Each structure stands twice: as C-alpha cells, then as structure tokens.
From TrEMBL:
<dbReference type="GO" id="GO:0016209">
    <property type="term" value="F:antioxidant activity"/>
</dbReference>
<dbReference type="InterPro" id="IPR036249">
    <property type="entry name" value="Thioredoxin-like_sf"/>
</dbReference>
<protein>
    <submittedName>
        <fullName>Redoxin domain-containing protein</fullName>
    </submittedName>
</protein>
<dbReference type="GO" id="GO:0016491">
    <property type="term" value="F:oxidoreductase activity"/>
</dbReference>
<feature type="domain" description="Alkyl hydroperoxide reductase subunit C/ Thiol specific antioxidant">
    <location>
        <begin position="2"/>
        <end position="87"/>
    </location>
</feature>
<dbReference type="Pfam" id="PF00578">
    <property type="entry name" value="AhpC-TSA"/>
</dbReference>
<dbReference type="InterPro" id="IPR000866">
    <property type="entry name" value="AhpC/TSA"/>
</dbReference>
Length: 113
C-alpha cells in the first residue's frame, strides 16, 4: 500500500507531465474499490484475477502450502509509451522514492512533457 500512496502523492506531477497512472493486481474489483476509497487514490486500479497480464509479462509469483495456492504479481513498474511499447521496466521495486524515479525516467526519455 505504501507504493500506492507514493504514486498518489506524485499524481499531480504525473498528470501535468501527461502521464496516466494505473495499478494492476490479481485482487478483486471490490478490494480495489476499497483501496481506492480508503487511500483516496486519484488513479484507477485494474483487477486481473486470472493473471493474464501478469502471465504475459512474466511477473506472476506462485506461492502455496499443501493444496492451498495463490498467484500474486511481483512488484513491478512499467513505463509504457503512447504507442503501447514498454519504454522502461522496474523489477524488485524499492518503494521509497520510486514514483519520483519513474517520473524522472519518463521526462529524460521524453515520454513526458
């Protein structure tokens, strides 16, 4: 949740730079609604309960014990350009300062105004 909050705090800067934000996870739409409301997120959270996007990107992490299994996304950030191409990729994200780093990268790659 700290990552969601950090991007919330930088949302206006992203918006002024012409960058749209969205979060994606395997959590349900209802859970996303609760997070969006509770954290007052100004950007959407997208539910991918079947892990289709995660599988396509290779970021699914499967954990389990006995017969219990769950699929989660590895914490990953993608910077996608206007053509839909991945311009930058962050895996093993360190949350503190990450939103500012993404914004700097977008600006230096001239993906932002």
């Amino acid at each position: 949740m700290r990552e969601l909050r950090e991007f919330r705090e930088h949302h206006a800067e992203f918006e002024r730079s012409g960058i749209a934000l969205a979060g994606v996870s395997t959590d349900s739409i209802e859970r996303h609604r609760k997070w969006t409301s509770r954290l007052k997120l100004p950007y959407p959270l997208v539910s991918d309960p079947e892990s289709r996007a995660g599988e396509a990107l290779g970021i699914v992490r499967r954990i389990g014990l006995g017969t219990w299994r769950v699929e989660l996304f590895r914490r990953t950030t993608l910077l996608v350009d206007i053509e839909g191409r991945i311009a930058a990729w962050w895996g093993k994200v360190s949350i503190r300062g990450h939103a500012a780093e993404v914004l700097r990268t977008a600006r230096s790659a001239r993906l932002a105004t």
